[in-house]
Amino acid sequence: MESTLTTKGQMTLPKAARDHLRVKPGDRVKIFALPDGTVLLLPKRPISSLYGMLKYDGPPVTIEKMNEGIAAGAAASLGITPRPNLAFRQTRRKRPRRK
Predict the structure, then answer these.
(1) CA dihedral sign of residues 59, 60, 64, 66
(2) What is the DSSP letter of 91?
(3) Rounded distance, CA 30 to CA 89, Å?
(4) What residues are paired with 33 via a beta bridge?
(5) What's the rounded Cα separation, in Å, for the pair 64 and 69?
(6) Can you give the pTM of this predicted structure?
(7) What's CA 98's distance to the chain center, in Å?
């Protein structure tokens, strides 16, 4: 694919590239200049576009179970044994009394 730069510094993204990136008029793209001289063009998507990307068909998981899984994964990546009694211990902060 090729495109020509105008005197205003603009260029038209070829239709094949727009279709591949799934961008339409008005969408924003991120441009990355890599050290080897190549340029990477990626569509900028809102975080809401990630909704539903990961599927889970099991029963609901509690926050405590999620925290245990996170701690175990972090410990495994660091090569240490998790200490479940200290991981994510919840403490309640005392609220100041109103006068």
Answers:
(1) positive
(2) -
(3) 40
(4) 39
(5) 9
(6) 0.47
(7) 41
Determine phi and psi for 25, rounding to 5 degrees.
Answer: -55, 135
Statement: residue 58 has pLDDT above 60: yes
Q: Residue 84 and residue 69: Cα distance in Å, rounded?
A: 10
For the chain, what percentages of helix, strand and coil (3-state, to nearest 5) are there? Answer: 25, 10, 65
Output DSSP code: residue 30: E
> Quick one: DSSP state of residue 44?
-
Is the torsion defined by CA of 20, 23, 25, 30 positive or negative? negative
Any idea what DSSP says for residue 26? T
Domain boundaries, the chain: 15-44, 53-89
- Residue 82 near residue 72, CB atoms below 8 Å: yes
The neighbouring-strand residues paired with 41 are 31
Q: Give the pLDDT band (50/70/90) at residue 4.
A: very high
